Request: fold
Amino acid sequence: MTVANQIVDISVEPLEERRRRRRAILRVGVPVVGVLLMIATILTIGLYANRANRNGVLALSHNLIDTVGDRIALEVSAYLGPAVRAVKIARDLMKGEAIGKRLPAIENFSASFLRETPQLDSFSFADADGNYVLVRRGAAGGVDEEIIDNAPGSRQAVWVHRNADGEEIGREEDPRNDFDPRTRPWFIGAQKTDGQFWTGVYVFYSDRQPGLTVSVRHVESDGRLYVFGVDITLAALSNFLSTLEIGKNGRAIIMENSGQMIARPEGKALLRETNGVLTTVRADELGDAVLTSAYDHFRVEGPGRRVIEVDGRYYITAVTPLQLANRDWSTLIVVPEDDFIGFVKSNLRRGLAMSLIIVAVAVVLALLLVRQGFRADRTGRLLLDRQHAINRQSAALATVAAAAARYDPALNEPPRVLTETLADVEGARRAAIWRVAESGRILRCEDIFDRETRGHVDGLELHRDEFPQFFASLAKGDEIVVPDASRDRRTAEIHRVLMKPVGTRVFMLVPLRQDERSVGAIWLEHATGVTGNQDFIRAAANMLAPRMALGTATAASLERASTTAAKAAAHSGERSFTADLRIREIEAANIAGDVYSGVAVMVLEFTDPVTMAARMSGCANSLSDNVVCALQELATEHDIPYLKIVGNNVVAAAGFEEQNSTAVTIIADTAVAVRDRCAALLEEDGREQDFRIGVDCGMAIGGTVGKEPRIFNLWGEAVHTAESMAASALPGTVQVTEAAYGQLRHDFLFRPRGSFYLEHIGEMRTFVLAGRL
Reply:
């Protein structure tokens, strides 16, 4: 399991941070909750209104469907009632007489009824002997009569055509007519009952149209049987159903409870041909999925209203029995629910769409409220931060004023309090105070404070020849504030030399001006408050400038005196320019020649020259001075004949004598002692381990060079390899070559470092020297 270290910002007060988060949640949460409540309210109202309107509309639709059902029942009763009355009148008219004797009366009665009752199609009169009279509608308002005299041996069938006035306009015999009324359903059914008999829907023999017949019987006192029937066509009833408007897409049918169709808006759909015979269809054979489903529910659940779902749509259905004598008929009404409540849904959608405008306005207002709240909080925090900054600056100004009053550049005391105060107040990585010297040709560092390492450095010098643009800007008294010093021509070289090694970019400089000339400067690196706190830096500069100017004049006098003394010392030989750290001449007798095959070399490299120039805490000497003094002591202690400092490197060597097998051991002991002494000095001063040590043994070249005093110089492969070992070593460690390891492994403790590539030599193994065994 991987455990991640938490980073805690100790500069943030937990309670204040919680309060800030709570305020932020309230700033955002209250408007958001308000908008959500508004949306929820609108949806609730919309859903309630939709449900209420839907229920109300459905209740009205039920009333409408009941009304339509009553109208259909009334229309069917009115449609079938005349046929019942007509057949009863015909029966009473024919009492006591044979059909042949009453033929004129039959013709007049039938023609009159057919003219007055359009739904009646024909009258039929028959007796038990097969005699038959049919009176039906003819052309141009006339009638056609079929008379069948079924006397034994002399059957005769005649068609008589009469016009609207009852005059005979044609007569024809039909010898192929074999019609026998006694085989027809209306005759068979009527002779078995004393009341009215209704046939089912069937196709009429005469005109091949669907219809039904109502018939009654009459029995004379002598037992003679007569049957009277009236044919009713269903086309008119279907046309009536087509005129009904039940919503936009509603429809109604009349059917028998067994499913046999009586009438529907499309009358032609009542017939189907099976094996060349026309028959009527059932309700579940129409190919209408909605009607079929409604009929199936009726068969299972009986009559009544219900809502069914077919193909994802809802339909209102109603099955109402028709109150007809001896007939099991019902009306079936089917209406899509959307025909009644479609406008409710559309109104709901429009209402919700219009509500979106209200929601949008509320969202905008909420955003403005949140924005205003955050702006108020931000303004409050800025004011509070500004107040804290003012308080810090006031305290810092008091500290700067007191420190500036005591500061005197001529006393060679670094203004550490000033640089620490400037860095802390501005939140800068580094703060520095510089003094102009030698008539503006040199800018000398009085003190540099690094806020991360809490270290101080002084004594650095910048020359005008190296930084002409920077010195020109400083001489004019320009303030410099740049977010990236590497991109500004005035500060590019400053960034490369001093800022890049520590990784800073933001740069600010305020010149110290006195009598219209620059006597120094304050600069900050990577300050978080550069743009907002320039006034504080200017105030500090104004307080520091007079002291800097006075100190500059005194320092100039001291510099002139020092220069004169230095020149005198140079003439008298008091100052030495030699790089030798230990004055111990190598005896000529021990020198085999200019090439030495067994020299052991140690190179000490300091990785941060700026840090090495800094003064140690509680000491007037620099860190490099203390380190070099320690090196000289160790060289004397271990009898090192060659110890020289070149830049930020120190080179020590031994083994100039022939057959000297202890040279590499002496250098190894010296390297361990140097490592420990440097580490102790740096740790004492609170600094990082900014040094590396490399050791090698092998061939080297040496000899005395120059005029008096002549200097012994050493170079060659062993020196170069030791320098490479130092340059590639880890900070604070001693890295040795494989050749040195081979001679030291029995007396010292090592750990492998890996392979190392050397130019002109190739790849070789290296080791880290830990100490003696």
Observations:
- The longest helix spans residues 14-93.
- Confidence is low (pLDDT under 50) at residues 1-5, 561-578, 588-592.
- Residues 407-566 form a domain with the Beta-Lactamase fold (CATH 3.30.450.40).
